[in-house]
User: What shape does this take?
Amino acid sequence: MRRSDLIASPTLWVGVLFLALLFGMPQLAPLFQWSFPGVSPPVFERGSFFALWLSHAGLVLVAGGAATIFGIALAVFVTRPAGRDFRALVSTLAAVGQTFPPAAVLALAVPALGFGPRPTIVALFLYGLLPIIENAIAGLEGVPAATREAARGMGLSSWQLLRDVDLPLAAPVILAGVRVSVTIAIGTATIGSTVGALTLGTPIFDGLAGNKLPFVIQGAVLVALFAIVTDMLFARLERWLQPPGTPA
Amino acid sequence: MIELDHLVKRYDGRPVVDDLSLTVPDGAFCVLLGPSGCGKSTTLRMINRLVPFDSGTIRIAGEDIRAVPEETLRRRMGYAIQSIGLFPHWTVEDNIATVPRLLNWPRTRIRQRVTELLELLRLDPESYRGKYPHQLSGGEQQRIGVARALAADPELLLMDEPFGAVDPITRDALQNEIARVHATTKKTIVFVTHDIEEALRLATVIAILERGRLAQWGAPIDIVEHPASAFVRDFVGGEGSGLKLLGLRKVAERMRTGETAPGAALPADASLRDALAAMTERHTDRLPVADGTGRVIGIVMLADLVR
Assistant: This one.
């Protein structure tokens, strides 16, 4: 990328803003004190925002990574001749997973898994599966029939067909699904704080419980910026993953 | 030699290929010809096992194709289809190199082969090898499709209406190319089409299929001169078959040697149809005929055409 593109890139500036707030929030204490007199302390201080973000990002990474691997694997399975009969079932199950409110999943998962990060990971995983499965199926089914017919006629094995033709051509659509899933997961992960996971939602729920509005704002702004930066990075990845020779 | 022996394929109990037996000799340009739904494509796709058959056998050079693993079998045959199916994310070079790479040819040999094939299909290797399919015209894409099918020097070339989706001028050029490729490489070609003109132009032998059965098998001229049934007669063009016959015969067959006539000479290997067209245009009943070097060797007369 050219230097001027880098400087003009919104991704860079939003990223800088996010990092500045992540590390510099305590420096804004006078501003919050002035805006919300009577709230003390003015900035959340039960843990560093960086530590909260690290834990938050870890939860999203584990749940999103698992949903990506599992979702793509399922989509690949139901688009092969052997798994075609399961296609409708898998789509329905994924849709049901999406309709379950994550808060309900948390409530159900806590008795089984205890407090802490684990119920949050389960909820994020189930909630994030649908966009990944749906997009991966759409992407794999969108590979031109003529290309697959020619590939089989050339003597590509099923595995070579998947690796060399289906996955590269479906990659942009699959990645778009991962992007939606991960962006949603970043927002949803905040409710994990209600069952003892450390996330950027922790200041939000602390603020709600203790009637401390600045905490809510601090958590919410950081979560939103985190989601936006991630989304922008995915957009770049999508452009980069676009197979050569296909118009974007 | 390809032998199809009592081949049967049913879909939902209904036979689409019904007890089909035929033998394609080595080096033949065999055209499977017939209307939509006659089973010609299915037959072609059974030869490379893209479609499994219910009974019968197919042998290539005496070997039962079911004794060979599917992928190995397909890598030994070239395959080109109407919708071409180039890999859009690969360059022309990578597309052509598909089968050689599957066969683990050394890189330098693959590169050399791609150059050879692009030259054979009259595309400049250096300007085309790095292009992507979407940068090519339909005709160019189909040339690459044919080059890809020929890449690993297959013993047999299977083509399923390869020129069905291109404009008439490009189709004409591509038909010339494939005729030339056949003459140069002497490969056995099995070619599916519903276009009688294309069949008569390219085939050394034609199999006409009617509802999954062999309606007639023979050289193009036999089929036009002696249709075996009303179906074949209708299919090869009833009224128009006279013109088709003229198209199949060479001027050399009807030439009178030792005479001469004014005007530009017709080559001896032109068809009688070309001769008729030239006479009509020039309002004359006789034309000079020249050999390959351009030397006038005789004349052809209007009356000779209808003899």
